[in-house]
Amino acid sequence: MNLESVKVINLPRIEDRRGNLSFIEGNRHIPFEIARTYCIYDVPGGQFRSGHAYYTQQEFIVALSGSFDVVLTDGVQEKTISLNRSYYGIYIPKMIWRQLTNFSTNSLALVLASIPFDESDYIRDFEKYKKIQNEAYNYI
Q1: Which residue segments constitute the domains of the chain, with CATH numbers given?
Q2: Which of 11, 49, 82, 121 is a good FRET partner for 62, with 20 to 30 A between their CA atoms?
Q3: Residue 105 burial (CB count, 10 A)
């Protein structure tokens, strides 16, 4: 996988003077069935979260409150996407290294995952990740 497979996805938005509503449906708004959800919150200023990739898991990340940056790399290129609205998020396919950083005060990240938690699916060592990616690119 490379960074071109990462997508910012706009979610449905129902605007109303009483308040707005957005929603997410698996296999409709995002390209996978949702198997797990989790939230990241109370991240102290200057700290970051994550720093890993997955062998098979796909993710969709949205900022429900506040803002934060998602730093992405495929081992060759790097890009940063800022999330700060609840009506769009970022789709991250398998084998993309990601790190969440630059959290604002009281920010809340919602992560939707394609598989249940499985520690063996994580690649937590960046050098190992680059080696796997390099081998994959050499076979293409």
Answers
A1: 3-139 (2.60.120.10)
A2: 121
A3: 11
Hey, what are 127's tokens?
């050098």
Amino acid (1-letter code) at residue 117: F
pLDDT at 27: 97
Q: What is the pLDDT of residue 26?
A: 97
Q: Strand, coil or helix: what is 51?
A: strand
The pTM is what? 0.93
Query: Does residue 88 come out as left (phi exceeding 0), alpha (psi in the -120 to 50 range) or beta?
Result: beta
> Exposure string (b/e) for 33-62, b if CB count within 10 Å is 16 or more?
eeeeeeebeebeeeeeebeebbeebbbbbb
% pLDDT > 90, the chain: 87
Mean pLDDT, to the nearest integer, of 66-77? Answer: 95
Look-up of token digits 């992560």: 111
